[in-house]
Amino acid sequence: MPLSLSRPDLLRTQNFINARWCEGRDGRTLPVSDPALDVTIASVPDSGAADARAAVDAAYAAGPAWRAVPAKQRAQILKRWNALILAHQEDLGRLISREQGKPLAEGRGEVAYAASYVEWFAEEAVRAYGDIIPAPVSGRRMMVLKEPVGVVAAITPWNFPAAMIARKIAPALAAGCTVVAKPAEDTPLTSLALARLAEEAGVPAGVLNIVVASRERAAEVVDVWLADGRVRKITFTGSTPVGKHLARESAGTLKKLSLELGGNAPFIVFDDADLDKAVDGLMAAKFRNGGQTCVSPNRIFVHQLVHDAFVEKLAARVGALKVGPATDPGSQIGPMINERAVQKIERHVRDAIAKGAHAVVGGERHQLGGNYFAPTVLIDVDATMACSCEETFGPVVAINRFSDEMEVIAAANDTPFGLAAYFFSGDVKRIWRLAEALQTGIVGINEGALAAEAAPFGGIKESGYGREGSRYGLDDYMQTKYLCQTL
Length: 487
Fold this sequence. Notes:
By secondary structure, this protein is an alpha/beta fold.
């Protein structure tokens, strides 16, 4: 079915470079598909190195003027952008749902979430304070300034096409940086629509540039940015192998990096937990976006004394989830992003069952076919199974039993990743023990919904470094300059 928007000009199908909407330099194109229907809904440029260089040229040329704009004026532009995003929440939500597949209610919610970052960093722009340092000798003044890092290259994933690009672009612009960005090949339309609204809000020419490329040509685009010394920061959300590649290749010009990479989040339910709240928390954390989130619980540990009761409550909730396309207003779980994603989920489930796990709910592709997978609950899962070692990135709950607190802490930390963790307990002393012992950048305590614009989002270990959101997120786009003056 056709993509209908109340503002048709938000459906952009060209690169945005130096305030111009333009085709790719070599004329190659890339289809954008609806994962629910597996039909093409638009065609966008499949850009290459020449487009990537043109974007950097524009961003670098625009840099001096943009960093000289007073912070209050930059904040006003961001506030106008925020207002426009919220004013077009329905259209943007439809774009997200059609190209990414999530239910329309989630698409609308993501738009509001994206806007919250724009609003937050508009307000933080005027609070990029420096310091006055008491001088150790007389006749000297010592000061610290915060300055924009320069040109920022933002590389964003497909699972949250509005929120992820807003979470990177908003702090960069607030800090006085200029941006070149490459959205994921599966979901470029939302990013381009946001660029159109940023243009309308008054973001000057060259300050924000969007270049679209296929998975096959992504390296060609990004390698230009990695090698170019004018690009001073890379911000990336995606897989750990790609993050490691970016870290290695950016070393030649010593760029600053923010890397939000893979996860393998534990979710622990103790015998003293409120089971209804724990089930609510798991449903919120696991089935948002069909399980296609980096902080989605991947390994569920339930104390043996409450295991059966918890599984019974959870299975009833999961079995009642409605699967369907975004066009169905009752849908709670949409399609996976593509066939590759479904194949990975299927491989994980089959591997677990072959090694002794049991499917209480689901366990196979959904009857709708295509890119749909049935919401699934597996029990008797152990650490030898693929679903315990790799991100499943789908609507599969894999449950392990445990009996001892120290045992489950060790199991939760037994992973190279460290993005998020969750646990449910009514014991105050245990809460503080677990909060300190879990090796992750984010911990949910009796809570399944973690993300907020005011909170620092990011991981440790092989889940990356740097933080997005909060006042710490603005610091990641700034550098510290020390001034020493003799009077």
